[in-house]
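Lab notes, practical 5.
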Amino acid sequence: MAAPGTVRLVVMMSALNEEKTVGEVIDGIPRDMGFPVDLQVVVVDDGSDDATGSIAAERGATVIRHPTCMGLGRSFADALDRSLRQGADVIVNIDADGQFDPRDIPKLVRPIVEDRADFVTTTRFADPDMVPEMPWVKKWGNRQMCRLVNLATGTTALTDVSCGFRAFTREAALHLNLVGAFTYTHESIIDLAGKGFRIAEVPLRVHGVRKHGRSRIAHSVLAYGVRAFMIVLRAMCYTRPLAFFGSVAAALLALGFVQGGFVLVHWLATHRTAPYKSLLIGSSLFLTLGFLVGILALLADMLGRLVTVSERLYARSKAEHYDDAHPGVPGGGQKGAVEAPGDADNEPDG
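Output from the prediction step:
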């Protein structure tokens, strides 16, 4: 049992055919963090057809094995579930491909340990000296996605929203609800920012190119951008419905008033609507659509408030569920164990 004051730290990672690097990443996790720590490692083997899972288990990690590749979002959710079951106070997510240096984990979790943040993400771009070598199109895509996520949250000014090297408090992890199977990086920021959790960035040096293999989600920048954009769009509709639908309604009403106002000025001057009758029809259409979308915005906001209450109750239910999963046994699971995703119930009982 962990001594009083000891931080139960779970380092989790998703791996797909990472036999060349997963052992190196696990071995590189420092055991001396600068504060008392009970360290555990959780690895999700997402349908690998190599020795990824067995190598991780040999290193003492708890391994969850997916029979087929279920996607990074699902792997993240399963790893988070297992980490909470093991009684984590702080959870660190790191990639198994070696792009992140596990020796930087103490720097990453310091804002949490010092109670300055609930969620910490790595930034590759805040410090010009730490910007990694990577194709310009990926840098440009990261900047655009960052602007979109900051716009979606309305509260953050982050410089990097796509980096998977992150740390969560237990409370933040309990309140995190993700639905995308493709990725989790952008959605988690929008979700936690919308719930008022403190978010911080830590500049760290990251390899811009994988040591081995290909990226599981970014082999096509265009495909990744489109899918990530759709996830951000859905997340924004979900977390800020009034702002999202209200801005659409305001834009439609503005177009309607501009067109209608132009026709009105023309009519006052000439007592004729010709040759601008089409603008009058367009104005009526935009004003009607704007009014309807405005009503939709109010209904969505009411629904969002109900969802907020439901999520708070759900988070409380999850906390009780995970506390019951390891009564008196911090760490819950057995190190080096390998289990299928079905072995861990992902939903609270009842």
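Observations recorded by the TA: Confidence is low (pLDDT under 50) at residues 328-334, 342-350. Residues 277-325 form the longest helix (49 residues).
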